[in-house]
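Write out the 3D structure for:
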Amino acid sequence: MSKFIVHPIGKVYNNENGTFIEVEKSYIPALQALDGFSHINVLWWFSDFDDEQSRSTLQTKQPYKGAPEVMGVFATRSPVRPNPIALTTVDIIHIDYENGIIHIAFIDANDNTPVLDMKPYTPSFDRVETPGVPAWCSHWPKSTEESAYFSWEKEFNF
């Protein structure tokens, strides 16, 4: 089996001061020319679930109401998975290029979560005009903007 070495490029700070990504000093030059992009795709590490039990769990009981009784973790956005890698598209509020701090609107990561990489969101590569989804989740919002006003608590079985 191949081994991969991944070095975090920064951390998420999600606290009473807001939500930020702080890029390690050595990676600040990689922010150059990010101006003009309204969103970035953030790859981050589900560090709270990086243990043998979480990594060996391949199926879960119905996490979403109306979903199949058992689901494979690849059919969920669960943090419990073989490689605890997460992907979230985030809205950029402001970038402090000097200090390597990106103020963002929201990310579903905890405070001090390691960030693995970031890529600019570009509709030509990241947007699907008519995505297909199973019937049990077809009533979910069609965008991240709509998701902010959706009653997600009614959708989960936990």
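Residues 64 and 156 are 5 Å apart (CA to CA).
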